[in-house]
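Internal tracking record. Fields below are filled automatically when a chain is submitted to the structure queue. Please do not edit lines marked as system-generated. If the sequence contains nonstandard residues, flag them in the REMARKS field before resubmitting.
Queue: standard
Priority: normal
Entity type: single polypeptide chain
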Amino acid sequence: MPGSRQDLRQQLSALAFQQAGYFTAAQALEVGYSYQAQKYHADHGNWVRVQRALFRLPGWPSEATDAYARWSVWSRGCGVVSHESALTAHDLSDVNPAQVHLTVPADFRASDSAVVLHRGEVPSDDIEQRPGWRVTAPLRTLIDVAGSDTPLEFVEDAVADALERGLVTPRRLTSGATSRGGRAAERLPDVLARIGAG
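SYSTEM-GENERATED OUTPUT FOLLOWS
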């Protein structure tokens, strides 16, 4: 029917614009593009094939945060950028993780060597929305890395940076770590004492 191709293109573009230009094969299928049509568009350069079942609109401007948007879409919107990747997103410490860290629900089944998956729920109060992806808020991020294998010097630098910028307070950090328990509860009081904020 007339105009249907344009309608499909507009629907897909609207979706991709919310996801930094990315979209999955499943999302394209929902919009109305058959797998055969998807292959056609990828083969003819109308879409950029990023990896199996993941595409991007051609000519989308490159951003430093592209990897976060890409892997968030790959996770079907389940993943929240977290841990060391969230430190980088918030510009806390000089950590430079080789892989993207995402927190995903316990029943999430996909995997990829470019992503470190952490299982758990992230309450909406602990999430900040960015264009095309979500990231754990600074307080949650610091508690996450304190409870992980992140080297202590990066945790200390991140806590010091966050305190200096007024993103968190020692009291909220201590309270959050105590609520979480485990390694975060053990490490954060020591970190605060070492940087003179305890």
